[in-house]
From TrEMBL:
It is found in: Cell membrane. It comes from the Bacteria. The keyword Transmembrane helix applies. It comes from Caldimicrobium thiodismutans. Residues 207-235 form the 4Fe-4S ferredoxin-type domain. This is 4Fe-4S ferredoxin. The keyword Cytoplasm does not apply. InterPro entries: 4Fe4S_Fe-S-bd, NosR_regulator. GO terms for cellular component: plasma membrane. Its main location: membrane.
Amino acid sequence: MRKKKGTLRRLRYTILFIFFILLVFYGIRHQVVGGGPAGSPSIHAYCPFGGLETAYLYFTSGEFLRKLYYSNFILLGAVVLLAGVTGAGFCGWICPFGAFQEWLNRLGKKVFKKTYELPKGLDRALRYMKYLVLAVILLFTYKTGKLVFEDYDPFFALFHFKFEELTVGLVILLLLIPISLFLRRAWCRYFCPLGAFLSFFNWMSRFKIIRKADTCVECGACKRVCQMAIQIEKVERVPETHCIKCLECVEVCKYESLILQTPKFLPSTRYVLPVVILILFLGTIGISMASGFWKSKAPAEVAFKIASPDEIRGWMTLRDVARIFHIPEKQLTVKFSIPEEALDMQIRKLDKYGIKEEDVRHKVKELQIQTVEARKKAPSPEDIAGWMTLEDVSVMFDIPVDVLKKRLGLKPEDSPKVQLKSFNDRYPHFPKKVREEVKKILEERKKF
Ligand code: SF4
Ligand code: SF4
């Protein structure tokens, strides 16, 4: 009987911790520096599943889904290679989201001294759920040409480090945290679309875990440490579909009844598995970097190619927005009541003017509608209504807000964002006064 050791687990947790910290670093850096061609890539660029999501668009049009680029294909290639050679070694030794759940579960075990399992039938049925998740995501992504899973993705919610918006992904993450305290790797077992995809390649693996029935006493220790809750003590060979090759079971078995079968040309020690995993994963990335194929963000000409205000991003400036949507810069400074120098600031930094990304998208849409309307019919001062603001009037007739304020006898501190009728208590029939003043200004313009 062999004494229980923890060397392999320590090694695995160290490797997982390094990859976890790396993603935390990339996530925070993106928030601090911002995205875009001059910034830091979003966490999406480091997700192997992104390669699968963008595959259809890339092979049909040569384009990528926004926020995804060549790095996603390279990572997808690396994990598929890993799956074919080692089984789901990526899930057990590299995936930071798997590690996150596993550590929570260890914490739960320490605090509550117990882990729970779902009834066998339910567990078996739920394991197929991830294939449905995979199919639904790919179907909708390929149909819409958008990263639809983003808002539902707990991995993204965790590593994107932007927690102020309550997305479905964040809700799933918040549910997953208490669940993981009691249930082992619930996301990996039941919902992970990447895990589902990799299971199509795991069967090719040359690393197998074999149980020697003649020495096994069916103590169940292996099953208790297995994060994928596999009934190891009942099988001759651990099924590749669910196993993440963490080797916890191999290490815990005091009777040495579980052995890792390695390919013949490799040494038959369990330590060879992490070495192969790291060589294949880091080697693929290293070779792609050395050969110049590793690109994790789109160049400017691609990043600025947007068609809808919904695609405006925080790393863009209002000057970029003006150029992309053919809006006069002056119109934007009036619309947002900002000084001209603010046009060169990233939108995400316009907080000090009370402007958020969402406001910019909304107002650009408004301006687009107004432009279309204006093309149909030139506005008349008679169209001015009490519910409009001074800013609206300014945009409609291209008259600076300051000029309007002066002509209407308003004070500089009067807000141009409030409805015209709200000035009625100071100036009776204020909207009528605005109509008359605008008429005069237009007449004066005609004379010059
Ligand atoms: S394989 Fe080892 S740990 Fe698992 S049941 Fe048999 S003796 Fe126990
Ligand atoms: S069967 Fe063993 S190697 Fe596979 S997931 Fe369970 S504990 Fe890890």
